[in-house]
Amino acid sequence: MRYVLYGVLWIGLYFLLVVAPLLVLMIGPVPPGRGFWRELSVGFGFVGLSMMGLQFFLTGRFRRITSPFGIDVVYHFHRQISLITLLFIFLHVFILVVTSPREFSWLNPASAPLSTLAGMAGLLAMILLVVLSLKRKPFRLKYEPWRISHGLLAIAGVGLSLVHIELVGYYVQGILKRGFWISLVCTWVLALLYIRIAKPIAMLRHPYTVREVVKERGNTWTLVLKPDGHKGMMFQPGQFAWLKLERSPFAMREHPFSFSSSAMKSDEIGISIKELGDFTSRIGTVVPGTRAYVDGPYGTFTVDRHRSPGYVFVAGGVGITPVISILRTLADRQDQRPLHLFYGSKLWEEVTFREELDVLKQRLDLKIVYVISNPQEDWKGEKGLISAEIMARHLPLNRLECEYFICGPELMQKEVKNSLEKLGISLDSVQSESFNFV
Hints:
By secondary structure, the protein is of the alpha/beta class. It has 3 domains: 2-203; 208-298, Translation factors (Elongation Factor Tu (Ef-tu), domain 3, Beta Barrel), CATH 2.40.30; 309-432, Nucleotide-binding domain of ferredoxin-NADP reductase (FNR) module (Rossmann fold), CATH 3.40.50. Helices cover 46% and strands 16% of the residues. The strands form 2 sheets. The chain has a 6-stranded antiparallel β-sheet. It has a 6-stranded parallel β-sheet with strand order 10-9-8-7-11-12, sandwiched between helices. It is elongated.
């Protein structure tokens, strides 16, 4: 309930800040109106700019903001609201041009006033930002250059829009109104300074060293990180962090990975990484002694937030990583609530942490159902993909009272959720987390 209240509070505050520029317009002397369509256009512009500035907070990994929702939900909202923001800014320009034919002359750079040039440049920066974000993979843009350009375009879009408003100057006159905009800009700048300077400095003061690199099944490697000169990091089982290796904490390139170690051991942390992409394909070559920086913990995919008489975990491939952290933690806590794990893998030999899962069965009230999609001829367990039929055969009798945790490829998560609905499981009892932040 506490997280629900916090979520409602943040949502309410977000919408209040979005419409705040319109509310401030009514304070003090109000200039004479200039017609409905022009005023509507101004309203779209002010709201769009406020939404643009708030994007700095949505991507800033402020734990108080992300904790009620999960950071993946916040990033998803950031992506979707960017399209609405661009629409509002576009409507601001479109309405002006359509309702005032003389505005067409402003589109000529040679004759347009400076205020219009600043506004159009800000709109162009926003369009470019959104297009590059949507088409990053088709354009084959590497992550680090894209992320740098993304930040610069965002700052340019907001900055040029502010210049446009100041040069037009119609609704920003007066001490109160000007003070509001100055305060708003200062808040956005402080958010940027926190993200790009204060947070990296904090990471610089809390470095880690790679103590060991452990090869696991399924082309997965576990990095065991030892805190260097500090007490380490407390986290909840199932959470994750952004990792930087052999780079300055100020570097833009970083990757989110789940903790795989027990949350009961803060003197070192384990992060298990599967060889999948450009960065992860080289993870096995990391040399012990390598300097690392960890930004976390983040995430709501944890049993600590969901009290339940039993838990059901559904993992696919490397999705076992946060689950093994939860199981290790529950074992260290001597928790004896009934646990069920459905673990899907292409091959039996690729089942990561297979041997340790057998050990954990002795320490926990844990039932494991392996589902192999490409089994050997002598395989006698479940085959194919994790389905409603397979889960129905193994779920406990009190399955409606359990809390469910799903981690794996997005398509697998979608199919499992559909299967759970078929079995009468409310999605309110289902937790999942996606690392597709970009």
